[in-house]
Amino acid sequence: MLGVGAVKNMFALSRSVYVTLWKRSASQAAGQRLDISGIYPPIATPFTKQEELDYHKLEENLQKYAKIPFKGLVVQGSNGEYPYLTEEERVEVVSRVRLSLPRDKLVIAGSGCESTRATVRMTERMAGVGADAVLVVTPCFYKGKMDSRALTHHFTQVADSSPVPVVLYSVPANTGLELPMDAVCRLAQHPNIVGLKDSGGDITRIGLAVHKTRGLDFQVLAGSAGFLMAAYSVGAVGGVCALANVLGRQVCELERLCVEGRWEEARELQWRLIEPNAAVTRKLGVPALKQAMEWFGFHGGACRSPLQPITESESQQLRRDFSSNGWL
Amino acid sequence: MLGVGAVKNMFALSRSVYVTLWKRSASQAAGQRLDISGIYPPIATPFTKQEELDYHKLEENLQKYAKIPFKGLVVQGSNGEYPYLTEEERVEVVSRVRLSLPRDKLVIAGSGCESTRATVRMTERMAGVGADAVLVVTPCFYKGKMDSRALTHHFTQVADSSPVPVVLYSVPANTGLELPMDAVCRLAQHPNIVGLKDSGGDITRIGLAVHKTRGLDFQVLAGSAGFLMAAYSVGAVGGVCALANVLGRQVCELERLCVEGRWEEARELQWRLIEPNAAVTRKLGVPALKQAMEWFGFHGGACRSPLQPITESESQQLRRDFSSNGWL
Amino acid sequence: MLGVGAVKNMFALSRSVYVTLWKRSASQAAGQRLDISGIYPPIATPFTKQEELDYHKLEENLQKYAKIPFKGLVVQGSNGEYPYLTEEERVEVVSRVRLSLPRDKLVIAGSGCESTRATVRMTERMAGVGADAVLVVTPCFYKGKMDSRALTHHFTQVADSSPVPVVLYSVPANTGLELPMDAVCRLAQHPNIVGLKDSGGDITRIGLAVHKTRGLDFQVLAGSAGFLMAAYSVGAVGGVCALANVLGRQVCELERLCVEGRWEEARELQWRLIEPNAAVTRKLGVPALKQAMEWFGFHGGACRSPLQPITESESQQLRRDFSSNGWL
Amino acid sequence: MLGVGAVKNMFALSRSVYVTLWKRSASQAAGQRLDISGIYPPIATPFTKQEELDYHKLEENLQKYAKIPFKGLVVQGSNGEYPYLTEEERVEVVSRVRLSLPRDKLVIAGSGCESTRATVRMTERMAGVGADAVLVVTPCFYKGKMDSRALTHHFTQVADSSPVPVVLYSVPANTGLELPMDAVCRLAQHPNIVGLKDSGGDITRIGLAVHKTRGLDFQVLAGSAGFLMAAYSVGAVGGVCALANVLGRQVCELERLCVEGRWEEARELQWRLIEPNAAVTRKLGVPALKQAMEWFGFHGGACRSPLQPITESESQQLRRDFSSNGWL
Q1: A72 pairs with which residues across the strands?
Q2: Where are the alpha helices (DSSP H) in chain C?
């Protein structure tokens, strides 16, 4: 295990140097969209028992993730408990991840806030600390008013001002609304909007999003390992999968089988991932994800309140969902 | 076009002779489950302007469907307006379809009613007029009480007494409830329950249903052309697709591509079917399905009230959903 | 207890004589709408263990109900398990109730079916056996298409042809849809539509329905004892309350207190009815209603399958909801 | 109209002096719960066209509200666009309102955040600038995990540490979840939790909350003018009503009629408030509320993006909902 001092050193590389390097690589890519295809874990944020950010544990996780063939990491997707972080914490976590992670791995940072102005500012800050792209969730508090008009306006404002490419993010289980398809199609034409992470799981919608944005170099990512293979079958090019925090190699293997067209093998693997995936997402949520991470050699750590630890009976259920599929 | 007399003759084959033939073929199959893999249109029921059953138009549709490589027909799925038929009409329609359809095509008859006893009786009558299998929808009026316990009891009672194999049917858009996965798994063990038609479209659930029933010879059918390819990718073996009433050959072609593992081609075709499919199902419903049938050379006919004809603007939208995908 | 023979005699009065008497009283009322204000239990339908209709038990319940100051009975509301009765049974039950019940009590018969034509016919049959009015539920299977246009058409057709006044019935917990307010307002103008039973419990909607139909002699009934007092406060004139099957006198007492403007006393009583009411409706449903009836001296009897008897733990919960409010 | 200088002076009273005064008045009340009965507008937050806080307009609104017999103001309820304010802005607005408002009017400040720790801190800050009580909304992002256990823990932590009394806040239209009744009952026993603002509108639930917390001096406020009278009828003691931003005197008049038991007059007034209320809440939302405020002599100002101004046709609809009830 690493000492605290060593961890601090890992994060010590000057940010300004770092950002300069990053800008050069970005300019090299001018003229074409950022390729976001591949698998990303939306990383969990470990907290201490006192609910403080545990950067040490985070760093150890990053060391392990660096060895898995992920395309990159999503920092502060829903599984990162971003609504429970302060603005400063959100930026700091992304900054540290970028400094720690090998340069060839993408960092996609969740920068969504409820207001457009806050999202614009957070997006700039995330880019400022090295995010390669931002993931922007649909605002949702005034859900009755978050129609195509409002959401198109919101994402356009954010994309217009963002220094880095924008990925749209629709996650109805948390927000209570889906980014409407007509908004997706319009926004896909924006030069700075490169894709969509769709966590709703409506495979018809995912296929349609691919179909309706053909020729626009718009990339659709499955928002869960539960429908990853099906999403690939209809044209998605990657996935942001909570389960990849736990079974990262397996999710990458599923990607590989899909990309290589080895559908029979893919299917066998996909099947075994459905229940573990459901357990750490819709059934038992982030606290279960963090528990499972512990079982598989990662640091989950505590959740911030009001999220509560899973109960003993939930823990048993969680274990069953992994063991009955041969993972434990 | 056929005269009324000719149509009557088509239905003239003695039912008792017919049923005897059928029973023999059934007994030959003893020891193995009925193979229901393949594509089925859940046929629409044409009515006259006075809302009477139009058997003449039905027969002409059947003649055309007989030439398409369907595995069979579903008679009185949701698209057949079965809740608007009397008990006698329900049986009569199935009887006529069976008599008209070539013997090598399966007739799967919707026999679901709200009460178990009515479903048992309707199932017997459907078998009595030659249905090869029955499709039994979840009862739904007392949805708060239709939990796993109640539904397992219901389907078990029906399957115990049914002379023909039973296919479970979950269609939450109409019923407001999904057949719970634990009930599916338990019911899959019943020797007379051969499969599930899942119209909910949750592809994770479809994959899980296949996975959890492996070794039980339990067959999962996609309940819509919108997610047909994705369903095949995770192990479904067929589809009951409203759109097959209109674009039957194309849906069968999609099946063939999936079965042969030609996923690239399948994807291209699947994409073009999503919008027409949505238009005739969740967006505009049965009245739109019937309108589209008219455009493609079939008889849709009127709907029974309270279903209303689509409006002029809906008709234009419907046309666009077909034409923008190259079908009109 | 009555012998079977006695019960049969109770129903022996000739129907044709009866209907003649009824028509006369109806014609006397020509020129003004039927007054439906007051309290009605939507009576449960007792079945034997073999799930056959138990007319004997029904009759004994009716004898008891006749002594409670109900305005009348609703026969085949949702609590009557009407979707589980055959057409013949539905008519027969109404017929027997009408023959048994004192003439000064109204019989409002549920005549709703999914299709307009079936509802028209059932309405005629219900009137033919003496129903004073019919309660017509919104059709709901094709819920995506049951918009204002379709529902207005449906209810208008039914009311046009009905020999007796029509009461609209909105019960979203079962049907998954609410009768839209604009349809309510339009339908309230129909001379043969006298009121609305609203079981949704949105008190704002109930107040608005009263407000928007002022001057039309349109009567709004609360569909549950849980919000009966609140409904009176905003202008409802009665209630169809499942709980009145069990605590009929108390529900009538609540009505009296509201009508007399004794709101303080009403509130005390209302409070004590909320939990028992919830227990026999949305929490535990018809099987709990029938169980509670047994405790209070009525015959609940069995439910028809797929409704299942309540479990032991549900029974304890049910008992608690009555006892903690001082009723057991 | 006031000049900018005058407005600044209004806010000039030293905060520390103010807070000292406040603490004394609070200590005088030791031993009994804060009386929160009465009517509160959840005030809108006026923005300039550049979406900056417009304190001048806010102050002018406050001058007008001070003359209406409100019990106080709710600052940063849902209608205050609080999710669109920064932490600093949230505190500053409350501070200014407290300094401007006559001392005998209560300031209830919305201090809810997603995490418990942020809510605790915001609560302290709100108290620090003079809030008489805080209104704490249910956290909602991880709605699947926000069960009774989590929410009880959250509110208990907040109430334990809050310098001022806490009012629970359930607003399912925005949050997608209701504070469960068992959590309400448990939390009502906390000495520092004085009431519940329930915006869900389930009148049965409101009655039950009153009933189940009798003897605990727990006060229930209706969260909307649409069901204010009904809420009074079942025991609520006040209301936090968006419509009071526009028709404040009328909402207070409705309160008075209810409190005095003049139910007939109350009903007439209640009816005329339902449609205007729905228009500025669930139908057209905050942008419509702000538009209507302009018509009635208050400053609505712009909304922050992504909230969009209402369209011309929505504006006409809004106007109709007021004019058809005699308010315009």
Answers
A1: A106
A2: 4-10, 15-28, 55-65, 87-100, 116-128, 148-161, 172-175, 181-187, 203-212, 228-233, 248-259, 263-278, 285-295, 312-323
What's the rounded mean pLDDT across residues B117-126? 98
∠ at Cα A61 (A59, A67), nearest 5°?
A: 110
Q: A125-129, B9-13, C89-93, C134-138: lowest mean pLDDT where?
A: B9-13
**Complex ipTM value:** 0.91
d(CA A197, CA A184): 11
CA distances from C264 to A216, C229, C243 (A): 67, 11, 21
Query: Among residues D169, D212, D283, D290, which one is catalytic?
Result: D169
Rounded-to-integer distance, Cα D246 and Cα D268, Å: 19
Task: Among A208, A235, A267, select the one facing B234 at the smallest CB separation.
Answer: A267
pTM comes to 0.92
How far lies D270's CA from each of B64, D38, D74, D267, in Å? 62, 16, 22, 5
Q: Are B161 and B130 in contact (CB under 8 A)?
A: no
**Closest chain B C-alpha to C281 CA, distance in angstroms:** 9
Q: What percent of chain A has pLDDT over 70?
A: 91
Q: Is the pLDDT of residue B23 over 60?
A: no
Q: What integer pLDDT is reported at residue C1 of this predicted model?
A: 37
Q: What is the 3-state secondary structure (H, E, C) of A4-70?
A: HHHHHHHCCCCHHHHHHHHHHHHHHCCCCCCCCCEEECEECCCECCCCCECHHHHHHHHHHHCCCCC
Check whether D19 is labelled as a binding-site residue: no
Across the interface, of D224, D227, D271, the residue whose CB is closest to C211 is: D271
Under a CB-based contact definition with an 8 Å cutoff, are residues B126 and B157 in contact? no
Asked if B197 is an active-site residue, the reply is yes
Answer yes or no: is pLDDT of B60 > 60: yes
Burial class of residue D221 (count of CB atoms within 10 Å of its CB; 0-12, 13-18, 19+): buried
CB atoms within 10 A of CB B309: 13
Predicted confidence (pLDDT) per residue in A102-150, tens digit: 999 999 999 999 999 999 999 999 999 999 999 999 999 999 999 999 9
| Rg over CA atoms, chain A | 19
Helix (H), strand (E) counts: chain A = 14, 9
Residue type (1 letter), B186 = R
Q: What is the pLDDT of residues B234-243, one digit of tens each?
A: 999 999 999 9
Average pLDDT over chain C, rounded to an integer:
92
